[in-house]
Amino acid sequence: MKIFSMLLTVLLAASTLVYAETEPTGKQPSSDAFNPNGFYTFRPDLRKCVSPLCGGIFVKEVNRKQTRCADGSLQQECYVATVINKQAFDITEAALVQGKLLPKNYPGFGNLGEFVLTSAARSVTDKTVTWRFVGLENNGIVCITTPCFSVDEYSLNSVKIKEISEIDLESVGANKEDLQQAQDIIAGGGVLLAAGINEQVQQQTGLGVKFVAEQFYLPIKPLTN
């Protein structure tokens, strides 16, 4: 009976290790780490009416079915009358922005909100995104065999972090220069923003997890005076 109990303990421990390789790690970013929150897709408001009721932008939080608007309501997308720091980035080229959606009252019009822009990124193709938005970062793990779970995958607008073993950017169809820049971001310790799906793949010593991108995003540098 004692031997059976010891064997059961060993088996449970082994199953826990396998589970940890395939599920989110649960670790939290440090204070100086990548911030996965505040990411939105957006579109300009082209309606013709009096400002500030028209002329702002519509924003939508990525990886969420509904977005919390400035007035506290949940909508598929939110109208925002003003973009703060808009002059710092050329958002005409942007497909993904990071910032804060804050309440702001406009006399005579009500709470139409303002968006404080902190960063912007452009998509490398016109391909429509259907999968999850993530940030991909080399976590420093070095292996002598595969799978090697050397990449942290941050789920944007979430606390979830998953370790993956491979990244496939080729399927996006980006040009060589954009593909090289993306690879340089990861190799240099930065975080590459992307959208795609995870797939289990058989590698040398077991099952790995490959992120297959359908789109990735490159940072738009702040404009200088």
Percent of residues in helices comes to: 10-25%
The number of helical segments is 2
Structural class of the helix and strand makeup?
A: mainly beta
Annotation, overall tally of beta strands? 16
Strand fraction = 35-45%
Using only C-alpha atoms, the radius of gyration works out to 21 Å
Kindly give the count of domains: 2
> Tell me about the biggest sheet?
12 strands, mixed
Write down the secondary-structure element order. HEEEEEEEEEEEEEEHEE
Straight-line distance between termini? 77 Å
User: Kindly state the mean pLDDT as a whole number?
Assistant: 86
Provide the low-confidence segments as ranges. 1-25
Q: What is the general shape?
A: elongated
Describe this entry's structure for a reader.
This protein is mostly beta strands. It folds into two domains: 2-30 and 127-219, no CATH class; 39-120, no CATH class. It has two helices and 16 strands. Strands 1, 2, 5, 6, 7, 10, 11, 12, 13, 14, 15 and 16 form a twelve-stranded mixed sheet that branches. It has a two-stranded antiparallel sheet with strand order 3-4. A two-stranded antiparallel ribbon has the order 8-9. The longest helix has 21 residues, at 2-22.
